[in-house]
Amino acid sequence: MDSTAGKDTTVDFSLYGGAESFAEGRSPRRTVVNTPSADDNGVSYPGPPQDPSDFLWLMTEEPHRTRRMAIIKAHPEVTKLMGHEPLTKWIVMSVVALQLFFAYALRHTSPLSVVFLFCAYAVGGTANHNLFLAIHEITHNLAFKGVKANKALAIFANIPIGIPYAASFKRYHIEHHKHLGEDGIDTDVPTRFELLCLNNVLGKTFFATFQILFYALRPGFVRTQKLTAWHYANIATQLVVDYILLKTLGGKALTYLVMSSFFAGSLHPCAGHFIAEHYVWDGLDQETYSYYGPLNILAYNVGYHNEHHDFPSVPWTRLPALRKLAPEFYDTIPSHPSWPMVIVNFIRDDEIGMFSRVKRKDKGIPRDQANATCKPTDGDEKCHVDEVK
């Protein structure tokens, strides 16, 4: 039987940048491969669409430790890339100063005005997203050699965000590295409730718009933390600074900072990395994706996400060097060509949704277990954990 029967063969889909896959009932492939291989040519789909009724449950170990060991064996000089980056603290200070300046400059401007909204989105959203990722970098003790100095800098970087979160983020994020995808431990993964409620275009639009709230509130429902002195220091510092801003500059200045934080985690070009990093695409069972585009300049190279999970002790300035050192490991892995399009495709594609995450069964670690310390020179699993006291 002629397979073309009943089809419109007059349309040249090659003119529409991959739109020929619509004729097959699937959206175009979204990820790219820098160096095609026998396993993935970067054009065809590696696998069938995922079942949208559940997460992708895997029994395999998370891939980063295995690849880290292989890279260390093939390129032992990789350990020279590890260590702190002194430049980080100067960028943090500059961005904090920038945000406080705009809060001062807009202290008499209506929050509903075009000028205020534009500044809060374009300047404030970008700046506070940069601070989110500065705190992420500092969480891995990559700004200073000492742990306490890093924690203090994270609290300082938190100031323009308006809401204290740096101290609690630290433990949640270290657990995200050590227990990637583990149900009930990795709070980066959506809950079953989110899957059931948000698995449609409207639900995904809502999620993408209010991502920052999901990441702020979900951990409290999934895995609560015991507060430490650093949590209290973070909360106290933020409350004092917010009070001073209210008394000296007024409510509009603080509104600017909080709106900046909202926009930073909403429909903002940089916010595409939240979805790009670990959502499963194109029928793959790959759970971490990199992005090598220009927005990395504003985001501490967090787009180099496979590289970061493989070597959390390599600071942001040296992640491109890590990829260059081991191209045979990274250039054959599918990556995202655009963060903004990740948000668009996440919302409109049926094949991607809240279900598109890898999950593993909880290994049963105690919920009050303290994480071990990590030295910058550690090249193995130790560098996935850190002290929390």
UniProtKB/TrEMBL annotation:
It is a multi-pass membrane protein. Pathway: Lipid metabolism; sphingolipid metabolism. GO terms for cellular component: membrane. Its EC number is 1.14.19.17. Keywords: Lipid metabolism, Membrane, Oxidoreductase, Sphingolipid metabolism, Transmembrane, Transmembrane helix. It is found in: Membrane. It catalyses: an N-acylsphinganine + 2 Fe(II)-[cytochrome b5] + O2 + 2 H(+) = an N-acylsphing-4-enine + 2 Fe(III)-[cytochrome b5] + 2 H2O. Residues 25-51, 366-389 are annotated as: Disordered. Its main location: membrane. This is Sphingolipid delta(4)-desaturase.
